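quick one before i forget lol
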Amino acid sequence: MIVAGIGCRKNTDTDAVLIAIDDALSRHGLAAGELDALATVPQKCSEQGIRDAAARLGLPLVVAGEAELLEVETLSHSPASVETTGTGSASEAAALAIAGRAGRLLGPRIVAGAVTCAIAVGEGKP
């Protein structure tokens, strides 16, 4: 399973989310067709830009549970993310939580304007 974890500022538009996903995928030599799911944290699950990006890509949007998020360790540490979501990186934590216990990040999150995106691989199920 390949998961793109997404974090963003409030009211970020769909195109910005899609650009961040494309950027993260290309940095790891992947294509959008290889993704199995988008993931986010509970605080961001109602962001229309994230929801619409998942719909455009034809992917499920999976919201990581609070308990799952506390079990993962992120590579990045953003004070804003800690304050808003309780994780060092919303995108990294969401991707890891959904990728499953054996999940691993392919690298630190990318920041594209108001959006962060991290790619994780694992054996989780969307």
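fyi The longest helix spans residues 14-27.
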